[in-house]
Amino acid sequence: MNVVKFPRMQQPLTQGWQSSELTKLTNACMTVPNSYVSSWEVGTTEHGDPQLYLLGPAPEHDCILSISRLGRLYVLEDGKGQVLFENDNVMMLVEQTCTALRKRKAEIVARLTVCWCTVREFFEEKVEPVLAEPIEIVTHFAPHFSALA
Amino acid sequence: MQFAKAEPKSKQLRKQAGTWLKELRGRAGLSQIQLADVLGFKYYTFISQVENGFGRVPVESMEAWAKALDANPSDFAKRLLSFYEPELYRLLYEVKK
Fold first, then answer.
1. Which residue blocks in B29-89 are alpha helix, DSSP H?
2. Fewer CB atoms near the end CB (10 Å): N or C, chain B?
3. What is this model's ipTM?
4. pTM for the whole thing?
5. Is the pLDDT of residue B68 over 90?
6. Residue B87 lies in a domain
């Protein structure tokens, strides 16, 4: 696969993020409830293209989403380098970023649900019979004990 | 709600990993674009994300990264583990039986 050679603009944009872009993006992230975004950082590529990193919860603060501006093109990627969206419209980018954050939340909820079901099944299969045994013994011997008393 | 700027230890270690990867890439004589091309990425932005210390090299592609950077895959993965999972690295390689 060839790396896309993004079109260079005739009039170069200001190096780094413009405050209006950053405000739009970070404000939009705040509107997503429980999005797991704890903080954000900015950086640049080797070629000086600005990047915005949305970071997850402590203690790891892993990058959840990364937004880069290559020329006029915005690229939204996840923390594993998968391209989620590419467009030159900042409002569409904001929309897609919020969608990606909501999807991520849904994924985490689904994973937690699977985890909970696994633990519950393990408890029902392995732990409950062990706990039930002494109760059965007590139930079995209770009449004898009461007769002795 | 206002997002805070983060500065935890794990981030510092990821930064060190990024610096080390950047050095390896430099030694291999590759630009971020060239490395992205070798690894099959559409854009080179993920390389930058990792080198800036925000992303991690995914376990499933560590071998490909190692080969692209002329490194031994086993040593490469071990070194990255020391940055990404320092406690696991300590238990595996530093704690004597």
1. 32-39, 45-51, 62-68, 73-84, 86-89
2. C
3. 0.83
4. 0.74
5. yes
6. yes
